[in-house]
Write a structure and sequence with these properties.
Number of strands: 0
Largest sheet: none
Shape: globular
Helix content: over 70%
Structural class: mainly alpha
Number of helices: 8
Strand content: under 5%
Radius of gyration: 18 Å
Order of helices and strands: HHHHHHHH
Distance between the termini: 50 Å
Length: 174
């Protein structure tokens, strides 16, 4: 049953990426039901977050927040820092889109700190980009610029790592 639940979730992901939201929701719902039967809290949190993504893409922000918050509760229970970083960033992004900048900042800063703690550069970059956009909207260009610079530092660091890896591989071939 675990394999079936994961497969249903993955099919939902494919439909989500194709913009076929009713189909995605159908597969996510079926996956979620199986994960509930199995008492698979980690899987449930993941699927709830995916359902939140679909509602966010459909601009149904209150529903997105509902599912993200359900996911976050399970992730807190599991102490899944990676999951919490992602979902906090997603909640912050939704609040940004709703022009509710105070809660957006709170969630994004929480997600950012978690991402820093676990070394997730992807989540750090997402948080920095959203925070820079929020502070730009608030007219605090100094803070917006600070977050843009932090994002650029991570991006440049990742590019340097990638370039060094390629150089090493070339040298090994010679």
């Amino acid at each position: 049953k675990t394999g079936v639940a994961n497969t249903l979730n993955n099919i939902g992901e494919i439909y989500k990426k194709q913009g076929k939201y009713p189909e995605a929701m159908d597969y996510y719902s079926r996956s979620l039901e199986l994960k509930k039967e199995l008492k698979n809290k980690s899987g449930m949190a993941n699927t709830l977050s995916n359902i939140g993504d679909v509602f966010a893409l459909k601009l149904e922000y209150k529903e997105a927040l509902n599912y993200y918050n359900q996911s976050l509760l399970l992730l807190k229970e599991l102490d899944d820092k990676d999951g919490k970083a992602t979902v906090n960033d997603n909640i912050g992004a939704v609040y940004f889109k709703m022009r509710q900048y105070v809660p957006a900042i709170e969630y994004l800063k929480t997600g950012l700190q978690l991402a820093i703690d676990i070394g997730s550069t992807e989540e750090q970059r997402k948080a920095y980009i959203w925070l820079s956009q929020i502070y730009e909207k608030l007219g605090d260009y100094k803070k917006a610029n600070e977050y843009i610079k932090q994002n650029a530092l991570i991006r440049d660091s990742l590019l340097n790592q990638q370039n060094n890896k390629q150089i090493t591989e070339i040298q090994e071939v010679q």
